[in-house]
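testing teh design pipeline on a random one, pls ignore if ur not involved
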């Protein structure tokens, strides 16, 4: 188990569970062959955790937190969507979604410069925007997204 302390909160990253006491968020990989890694274990680029399958590090689910004064996740995503084409991304999907106990906005993007696809799930929580990003090569994205979706569906907001 790895403990991490951010500016506001502490979190625990176990191989099969992510617990963020300050944000009151819990996620699990249940019986899937995916493991969580904390920022100390992984080149996290600001992520609080990265989860990936035990046999394929090319697929991943990451979680980062941005400060945000946007009124909701959709407005925050719309701001990003103006810039994404500059980096070779093309919007494939955008919709409001609920996974487990989290309600937010989901976008899917393909990148013309690489063989990757990403799907981001954005959740507004107080002055923070929680950004969950599932990424994988195009040829395995459908399977990776199923696992990312299953992990997000375990989300619980603790009392």
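output:
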């Amino acid at each position: 188990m790895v403990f991490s302390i951010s500016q506001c909160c502490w979190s625990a990253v176990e191989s099969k569970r992510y617990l963020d006491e300050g944000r009151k968020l819990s996620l699990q990989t249940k019986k899937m062959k995916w493991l969580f890694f904390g920022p100390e274990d992984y080149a996290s680029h600001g992520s609080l955790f990265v989860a990936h399958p035990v046999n394929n590090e090319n697929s991943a689910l990451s979680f980062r937190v941005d400060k945000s004064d946007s009124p909701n996740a959709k407005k925050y995503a719309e701001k990003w969507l103006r810039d994404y084409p500059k980096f070779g991304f093309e919007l494939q999907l955008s919709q409001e979604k609920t996974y487990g106990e989290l309600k937010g906005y989901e976008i899917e993007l393909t990148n013309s410069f690489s063989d990757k696809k990403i799907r981001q799930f954005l959740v507004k929580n107080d002055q923070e925007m929680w950004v969950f990003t599932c990424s994988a090569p195009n040829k395995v994205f459908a399977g990776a997204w199923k696992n990312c979706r299953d992990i997000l569906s375990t989300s619980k907001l603790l009392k």
